[in-house]
Amino acid sequence: MKFMPEFPDIPQDALTRLQQDSGHFVFTSDLSVNEFVLVEEAGFTPLGLVMGSSIYHIGYQQANWTKNQEMTVLSQAMYNARELAMSRMEEEADALKADGIIGVRLQVSHKEWGQHVAEFVAVGTAVRAKDGTSHRTIKNKPFTSDLSGQDFYLLMQAGYRPVSLVMGSCVYHVAHQGALASIRQMGQNRELLPYTQGLYDARERAMERMQLEAADLQAQGIVGVHLDENNHSWDSHIIEFFAVGTAVVKFQETAIKAPGLVLPMNDTNG
Predict the structure, then answer these.
(1) What superkingdom does the record give (predicted)?
(2) For residue range 21-32, what is the model confidence (pLDDT) as tens digits?
(3) Chain segment 151-193, per-residue pLDDT in tens
(4) Which CATH number goes with the domain that contains 157?
């Protein structure tokens, strides 16, 4: 079975790995044993480890030294690069005829090739519903989620299902404080209001963009939200605020609990 015409962004080696030739196909997964069992109990079969990569040159933007402001060029670059990695991971899941991807990890690493060059990688385990029910999004893409296998199981048992990994990014320049202001506050306990306002504003923008993504997919809520900060080797006053979580929707009023199943309490999947 050849996938090349349908999935032009996937390398040939990846296509070969993903081919489900009966008698030779072996699924791969980064799920722990406990997670694997719980995903099976939730009614899904792991199909394979899927991934997407984008090596991206991040442009330059001049900041006003004394002003709090979003670095819109950088915000867009960080978002676009992650979207490219996510879409290629979703293509690999499509090649496996998967319903969704669980345990998604988004990673950013900077390369020595240049100060503004970074690799964005998305990795997760593609799964398919055993009963043939489609769990794809309203845009006909596989659902994506960064929930662990345990959390995915509990979510399904509660009558909710993942829709998509949603995210919002805001790269923000926090204004420098002048020398006179620094001298005036020496030895005093006081709030640094411009800093507070800048960081507050940046986090709110990232959160709002994540919520807008969920609303666009007609989700009812977002679980497992992480709000991370990183300056990615930029100037110390330039910080990316990145919000990410799993958008969910209710699909049944009463879930059926698996009889006799004891949930492990000491296993986590980062």
Answers:
(1) Bacteria
(2) 444 567 888 899
(3) 999 999 999 999 999 999 999 988 876 545 555 656 677 777 7
(4) 3.30.110.70
Express each pLDDT in 76-98 by its tens digit: 999 999 999 999 999 999 989 99
Nearest to 228 by CA among 206, 248, 259: 206
At residue 179, φ and ψ (nearest 5 deg) are: -65, -40
Residue 263 domain flag: no
- pTM given for the model: 0.81
Number of independent structural domains in the chain: 1
126 located within any domain: yes
Question: Do 154 and 38 form a contact (C-beta atoms < 8 A)?
Answer: no
Strands lying side by side in the sheet with 100-110: 44-57, 117-129, 100-110, 143-144
Task: For residues 245 and 226, give the distance between their C-alpha atoms in angstroms, rounded to a whole number.
Answer: 6
DSSP label at 184? H
What single string gives the DSSP state of each residue in 54-94?
A: EEEE----PPPTT--EE-HHHHHHHHHHHHHHHHHHHHHHH
62 falls within a domain = yes
